[in-house]
Amino acid sequence: MEATARSTFVSLDPDHGHWAAYAELWRASTARCPFQAPAILRWHGQTTSDATRLFALRDERGLRAAVVLRQNASGGLSFLSDLKTDVNRFLFHHEADEPTKRAFFDGLFRTVVAEGLALTLNSQPGDHPDTLLLLAGAKEAGLHTTVVENSACPVVEAATPGYLFDHVNGLRELRYRVNKLRNQQNAVFEVFTDEAQLDAWTEDFQNTHVRRWSGTATPSSFQDPARRAFVTGCLRAWAADGLLTRFSVRTAEGRIGFVIGLRAPDTLIHHSTTYDPAHAKSSPGKALIHVIAGWMHDNGLRILDFGDGREAYKFTVATGERPLHRIFIARRGDLRFIASSEMVRIVRGNRFLHGVYQRHVKRRRTA
Do 17 and 54 form a contact (C-beta atoms < 8 A)? Predict the structure, then answer.
């Protein structure tokens, strides 16, 4: 408690020598979430035109809590990691207690009020205690909050790596897909845990992604050279922090299936995947799930997190899901922001309206 009382909340500039302190805090955090890792956030900061701000709670021992946000021209704040994420986390030292976390949120909210800002916090883990503290702190600060149940991360969570592998290996279809690829196509299953062949592998992934989504209502963003360069930079950043593991299926024709995996404590995040549509009947993506489970067993990981989205293939394996919320926080006098956030909540909660948005409005905005 004394350390918390001596702590001070500060808004720092991540471009002026504060990344070293942030990196030290990330390494000392419990989650060590790859989406808030130092190298990836530095890369995001280089690619966005928005101003970036590091909000932190510090005492004589250094940073105890932090978050890197980007501020747009209209005064809105959102996670910098929104640029490439499944989930967004606030960063807390593993020794941080509840009063420390409350002090951090209180400082953030005081800044929101003093500077007339608003928060749009996407991909927040809805069932996490830190999210409950965030919402309680916003209420105590007299701020308006809108919470939207936005998505979920399907997961397989087991008591041990052995139990996780037994669960996945027990799924006959996955074993069948692996054996069929090996026996009929002489497939080789690749695992890369470093930067070996990174650029060539990433180019294969992106080209395959373009083929996979060609002719559909949602063509691949990798048709854009800028998007290719951005994602390549992301993979290099995760590799630099030792968080990237890449899985692929290779036949005589080349690589036909891919998974980009990110490591966290006890966890592998199944972040991005694609496959060659010419080999759709072979289901290389499902075969790779079995390969991933074996690799996790060998490397002591017991949680397979399928990342944001409720795609059907994930529930072939998943034993549960973690809800993701979108949280809007603003001063009660910010009527335009409040009306906009309430509209999002209404549309998201209505199946018909959300379908119209997905089919028409969102598609037009992202085309």
Answer: no
Tokens 């997905």 belong to 358
For residue 60, give the 3-state DSSP assignment: coil
pLDDT, one tens digit per residue, over 46-57 is 999 999 999 999
* Residue-level pLDDT at 350: 58
Q: How far apart are CA 120 and CA 70, in angstroms?
A: 10
Domain with CATH 3.40.630.30 in the chain: 2-150+324-366, 159-301
Say if pTM beats, i.e. exceeds, 0.90: yes
Average pLDDT, the chain: 92
Question: Strand 76-79 and strand 118-125: pairing?
Answer: parallel
Q: Taking 50 as the threshold, does the pLDDT of residue 2 lie above it? A: no
| Look-up of token digits 């080349």 | 254
Kindly state the average pLDDT of the residues 250-262.
Answer: 97
Question: Which superfamily does CATH assign the domain made up of 2-150+324-366 to?
Answer: Gcn5-related N-acetyltransferase (GNAT) (3.40.630.30)
CA 238 → CA 44, 246, 275, distances in Å? Answer: 12, 11, 22
Look at strands 62-71 and 91-92 and give their pairing: antiparallel
Q: Per-residue DSSP letters for 227-282?
A: HHHHHHHHHHHHHHTT-EEEEEEEETTEEEEEEEEEEETTEEEEEEEEE-GGGGGG
Q: Which CATH code of 3.40.1190.20, 3.40.630.30, 3.30.1370.60, 2.40.30.10 fits the domain covering 159-301? A: 3.40.630.30
Spatial contact of 144 and 176, defined as CB atoms under 8 Å apart: no
Residue 219: pLDDT band with limits 50, 70, 90: very high
Instruction: Give the pLDDT of residue 362.
Output: 43
- Is residue 330 within 8 A of residue 143, CB to CB? The reply is yes
pLDDT(355) > 80:
no
pLDDT at 358 > cutoff 70:
no
